[in-house]
Amino acid sequence: MKPAVKFKEQVRRNLVALISLAVAVTSLGYNTWRNEASESNRNQRLVAIEVLRNVGELHQVVLHLHWDKDEIDKGNPRTGWALVLAIHDLAMILNTPVAESAEELKTTWAQHWATLGSERASEKEIVAALEQLRTDLHALLSSLN
Length: 145
Description:
This protein is mainly α and about 140 residues long. The chain is built from five helices and no strands.
């Protein structure tokens, strides 16, 4: 028997096994990709929710500091800095627009925290940065499947 005929005969006899192997490899590849995508979405969702929680806490600090002039208890600027830095660090894990918004919030906070309570523009700038970050987080959460 010629080698080419022998090979064709072996393929014909094992066609079901070869098809099964191809299906198994394809299924394994798809399953691996799907698991990675799901894990990435899960991580994005978890971190985004944590950032949203911190954004809410920071917004409360801003309101207490600006409107109540409470620098000691609920509007302590050190608490605000801690929240801004936590938001900034967590947002670096998230997809593009959120990380940029967190960077903008950090810059805005650095420029305006000292004048909260005395200048209305400072409160407006910080709240606008918080709202932009919140909007980007909501868009990110909506985009995850």
